[in-house]
Amino acid sequence: MPEPDANAPSFETLYAELRRMARRELYKGGPAAQISPTTLLHEAYLQMAGRPGLQFADRAHFMAYAARAMRGIAIDHARARGAQKRGGGLDITALDTFVSDNAMAPADAAAEDLEQVGQAVERLAAIDARLAELVDLKFFAGLTFAEIAALRGGSERTAQRDWDKARALLHGLLQA
To answer: How far is Cα 129 from Cα 132, in angstroms, rounded to an integer?
Structure first.
C-alpha cells in the first residue's frame, strides 16, 4: 500500500472544495438547475470513476477535469429538463404563434446561456487548451487567481493576464 503524500489534501478538504465547485456550477445555470450540488458532484465522480486509467499530472489538471465534468452534466441536465418541459419532442400544433414563440422561460434562457458558454469553451480549447483550462478553473470551478497561480506554478498576474485574453477570445466566440 503506498504511503499517503503529506502535502496531499485530505478527502474531506477535497470533497468540500468539489462540492463548492458544484454549487457554483449550478448557480450559473440559474433556477433551471433542479439538481443538488451533492448529486452533481456524485454524478461527476461516477463519470470520472468509470474511465479506466484516468490519471492527472497534478491537482490543477484534476480540478479542471472535474469542473468540465460538472459543466457537462449540468448542461445535459438543463437540456433534458428543457426538452421535457417543452413536450419531450412532441409537436404541439394547437398553440398560437405568440405562445409557442415565447415558450422559453427565463430559467430556460439561463440554461441555454450556460450551454452556449460551454460550447464556446470547447471551441476555445481547440484554439488554446491552456486558456480553456483556465476558464474551467476560474469560471466553472470558482478558483481565485491566487489559487490558479499556485496550482499552475505561475504568478497571480500571469493568471489575470491569461484570464483577460481568454475572456476576449470567448467574447469573440460567443458573438460568432
So the answer is: 5
- Distant-in-sequence, close-in-space partners of 161: CB < 8 Å, separation ≥ 6: none
Considering its fold, how many domains does the chain have in total? 1
pLDDT in tens, 30-70: 554 567 888 888 888 888 888 888 888 888 888 888 888 88
Which domain range does residue 157 map to? 11-175
8 Å CB contact between 122 and 135 = no
Are 125 and 132 a contacting pair, CB within 8 Å? Answer: yes
In the chain, the N- to C-terminal Cα span, in Å, equals 52
Calculate Rg over the CA atoms of the chain: 18
Least confident of 32-41, 91-100, 107-116: 91-100
DSSP state of 30: G
